[in-house]
Amino acid sequence: MVSKSYVWLDGKMVLRDSAVFDVLTHSLQYGSGVFEGIRSYKTNEGVAVFRLKEHMERFLRSAKIYNMELGYSLEELEEGVISVIKKNQLSQSYIRPFAFYNDNKIGLDVTGKKISVVIAAVEFGSYFSGKDKGIKCIVSSWRRINSQILPVQAKASGNYLNSIIASSEAKARGADEAIMLSINGYVAEGPGENIFLVKDNELIVPSEESDILLGITRDAIIKIAQNKGIIVKERLVHREELYTADELFFAGTAAEITPITYVDNKKIGSGHVGPFTKMLSDTYSEVVSGKNREFDWITLL
Questions:
Q1: Best CA proximity match to 185, nearest among 132, 237, 109, 127
Q2: Of 105, 114, 155, 291, which one is the catalytic site residue?
Q3: Overall pTM surpassing 0.90 (yes/no)
């Protein structure tokens, strides 16, 4: 990694320290930005970005939902990600594209406000310290937002206040992370992760009707499982099914595949990382590191 950090800002590479914005910037005050989270990995062929196109397509969809015209094509944004990784000489990194209203006028009206796009990247390891052995979760008292409140399929900054308060509650109660229910009481997702259940050799995933973000890692795990002949069911999931599952795990860009061994102080399965979770985690690691090329999901730099 280079001694100085660079970011891609409005099409130009600048020092991160020089990317300074007004404290009254609209998106800082109101959470009115959209973003993505992407990972790069070291492979035998060099550094590779996992599902770059899919992430940047979702970035543009999020912007469209909020009527934000970014002014950059998919290809330009992809090249921005690649250039940031190269400029900072990163390998195992987390990349954060972020579009925001770069305007310091007080008020909710965003008409005519300048939109800036920044892409930053940092070295990144495991998101959860207990990733290898499994983590403890609680079902949050805070419900997941739904599309009658805010568009859940947009990865928008303001949406994550909902996630932050749930995650903070979990840590205050001695857990590693929260599990959120939909307004109708069905299992939705973690604050920043999708959730999977294993029961009777089948993989069960909360469906879109559960007010989830349709995660790109979620999609990858479903496809990997199906490729291995595992039956995958996307449906509404009742809370009590968490307790009686054979295995549980989170999946997300930051979390990758993280086993869940306790929920509300109830042991899940054996209380250890289960065989399905380990197999899917091992395969996922092979895919992102380029050792398994069954899926065309990595972009080599």
A1: 237
A2: 155
A3: yes
